[in-house]
């Protein structure tokens, strides 16, 4: 990790100042399982705090321990709606649970695939977008060079740190992040941490 920090500080003084201000890199990883991917789906298009409350209610309703495909499928639609899940997300999560149980999707096999193939396989399912897969790549599969340029938290952090008058476009974030390769996941974590609410991390 020292190599990543040295690289980011050397290639971008603004990012380097953020790193100095925030301190050591202490990302919290999650296991590459249904629960982690389900959490990323719940987080889609919601603020971190709201999504965290919904997900905690989901975990409690599914019983103690890990949220498994079987436990999710045991919950009735009405109960899931009461927890705060939209019908679209319920349908997406149910399809994901079925695909895992039938063996159509093997999450363990994703660990040995390149980022692009992981994205292709997961976004093939309706309801799973690029942002969701990027979160899974960073926090579950521990990939070092993912740049979630569409993330509003990332764009807000870039605007604040680099002094943009308006929220930068995803394309502009990609351009700015080009020198950060091959450690854009590390840079993203620091950008999230620079926000007041830490983007729900």
Offer a quick outline of the entry.
60% of the residues lie in helices and 0% in strands. With 201 residues, the protein is an all-alpha fold.
Distance between the termini: 20 Å
Work out the strand percent.
under 5%
**Helix tally?**
12
Mean pLDDT: 92
Tell me the CATH superfamily of the largest domain: Hypothetical protein, domain 2
Question: So what's the CATH class of the largest domain?
Answer: Mainly Alpha
Classify the fold: give the CATH topology of the largest domain. Endonuclease III, domain 1
Q: Based on Cα principal axes, name the global outline.
A: globular
Helix content: 55-70%
CATH architecture of the largest domain: Orthogonal Bundle
- SSE arrangement, N to C: HHHHHHHHHHHH
Total strand count, please?
0
How many separate domains make up the residues?
A: 2
Low-confidence stretches: none
**Biggest sheet record:** none
Q: Measured on Cα atoms, how large is the radius of gyration? A: 18 Å
Please write out the topology.
Elements: H1 2-11, H2 13-22, H3 34-43, H4 48-62, H5 69-73, H6 77-83, H7 87-102, H8 115-123, H9 130-139, H10 152-162, H11 170-177, H12 184-193
Helix pairs in contact: 1-2, 2-12, 3-7, 3-9, 8-9
Model description:
60% of the residues lie in helices and 0% in strands. The protein has 201 residues and is an all-alpha fold. It folds into two domains: 2-28 and 146-200, Endonuclease Iii, domain 2, CATH 1.10.1670.40; 34-139, Endonuclease III, domain 1, CATH 1.10.340.30. Helix 1 crosses helix 2, helix 3 (34-43) runs antiparallel to helix 7 (87-102) and helix 3 crosses helix 9 (130-139). It is globular and about 50 Å long.
